[in-house]
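hiii, so i know i said id send this last week but things got crazy w the move. better late than never?? heres the sequnce for the chain we talked about at the cafe, plus the structure i predicted for it. fair warning i was half asleep when i ran it
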Amino acid sequence: MSEDGRFQMGHSKDHYPDLPQLKVMVGARDPLGMPVATQVVAGNQANAPLSIPALAQVWSGLERRGLWYVRDVKMMALVTHVHLQAGQDTYLGPLSALQVPPEEVVRAPQSAWSGEQPLLSVEQPNREGPMEKIAEDYEVQATRTAVVNGQEVPWNERRLAIRSWLKAEAAGPALRKRLERAEEVLPVLNARKQGKRRLTDETALCEAIAAIFKRHQIEGLPTVHITE
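okay and structure toks below
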């Protein structure tokens, strides 16, 4: 593979130098699963811009717009969304932490926890047939805007935050174990011990406590009182 080659490869994300990477863009029509666009492209480029020529192939093949695209997180870039909106198309997919920062994720559900915004029930039939509640969600609106072909395109993006009962049940024991480990460390954090330097400043002690919370991924959960 040379720099002036006609087809460039990317590096393997699994760190295997003998496995050069290329990318295949596929658009399929549901519920048939019938491919309507297939493109093999070089692997040494970002994912986001690759969606646009693939979308153009879909539009050309189907000869229609107003389509609904279900996509993965790599295809949810703003540059792709604005091209879909400009053509009156819609999209559904997960947003990454770059698109929705963690602090926004923490702030958004406050209206649901306070009761100002009702939680919606997500249900599906169980094995016996009756409907079973499997999750709760709430919806927020986000105003997006971007420029395509020199024209500013604004739109409202509906964002759903979903709490799965099954996932919550699986995460609960792990969270309790992390809390227990932190509770074991905190009481002896500043205990007297030969050869150990004690923290005599409250600011330094708070920083040490915050580091423990971060290490065990329990920030914002425990409440600690410091007494002198």
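btw The two ends are 67 Å apart (CA to CA). thought thatd interest u
miss u guys!!
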